[in-house]
Amino acid sequence: MMKTAARTLPSDDVLGYAELKSDLLFHRIPHSKRRYYVERPLAIGREQATSFKARYGTDVGAICRDRGISVNLNERQGTIGQIRFRAQIELSAKERAITLYKSSMEELRQCAGVLLPGRSFTLKEITDIHLAHELFHDLEFTELGYTNKRLDDISSLSLGPLRIRASVTKTSEIAAHAFSRYLLDLPCLPNLLDYAYMIHSGTLTAAEFWRQTDVWSGELENS
After folding, report:
1. Strand (E) or helix (H) holding 214
2. 7 falls in which pLDDT band (50, 70, 90)?
3. Which residues contact 112 (CB under 8 A, 6 or more apart)?
4. HSE-up of 118 (CA within 13 Å, CB side)?
5. Which of 56, 85, 143, 204 has its CA 20 to 30 A from that of 65?
6. pTM of the predicted model over 0.70
7. 25 touches 166 (CB < 8 A)
8. Strands 96-101 and 70-74
9. Interatomic CA distance for residues 37 and 29, integer angstroms
């Protein structure tokens, strides 16, 4: 845990577990394996960040340029139907491109300090966080293999003798969060900002968030 003036920030394990809980197959993960699906992707993302940081420092833009990834800053908000997103990556044999949506980034910048008292973010810092996150997915596509495919599968359906197995896809997101955090020297996993946005927009209260972190921590300790 990391102490701030007002609160103890959730640890990587707790924020990674929060991400894991949003996996569609979370209910199929055995309790005894929950830590595995948090700790392994955190380690994968951290190891990659350490390697790149030794070569590039925190210059995520330079990494993208050297890897031939085009980066586009779109002035609009990213939306598909009712779904809003801040960044997207297109990966193919011909082109790899990351698009960042400036309006959505600015929106996040304005509320980022909600859970980090005394810490403000520039627009560049917010865009770098998302750029690093998408860069990790490029690494998965080109070199590493997708994190969820590198970890053990789980049983997703049992019907008589029929057994269907599937991977835990959110582990890829957990690894990408860890990559951003350790490449950019962030004080915690950046999915904390998603909760800051929810509090800022009124869909979650700060009290409920902190109560939920206690629940996540307890569940993880007992797994």
Report:
1. helix 206-221
2. low
3. 119, 120, 121, 126, 193, 196
4. 6
5. 85
6. yes
7. yes
8. parallel
9. 9
Residue 21 has pLDDT above 70, yes or no: yes
What pLDDT, in 10s, does the model give residues 30-43?
999 999 999 999 99
Question: To the nearest whole number, what is the mean pLDDT of the chain?
Answer: 90
Q: Can you tell me whether residue 52 is helix, strand or coil? A: helix
Which residue's entry shows tokens 């966080």? 129
84 Cβ contact list (under 8 Å, min separation 6): 77, 78, 104
Q: Taking the CA of residue 124 as centre, how many other CA atoms within 13 Å lie in the half-sphere pointing to its CB?
A: 5
Q: Are 98 and 64 in contact (CB under 8 A)?
A: yes
CB 33 within 8 A of CB 26: no
pLDDT in tens, 82-129: 566 788 888 888 889 999 998 888 888 988 888 887 788 899 999 999
Structure tokens belonging to residue 18 = 């929060």
Q: Give yes or no for a contact between 58 and 182, defined as CB atoms under 8 angstroms apart.
A: no
Give the list of residues 6+ apart from residue 73 with CB closer than 8 angstroms, or none.
99, 100, 102, 127
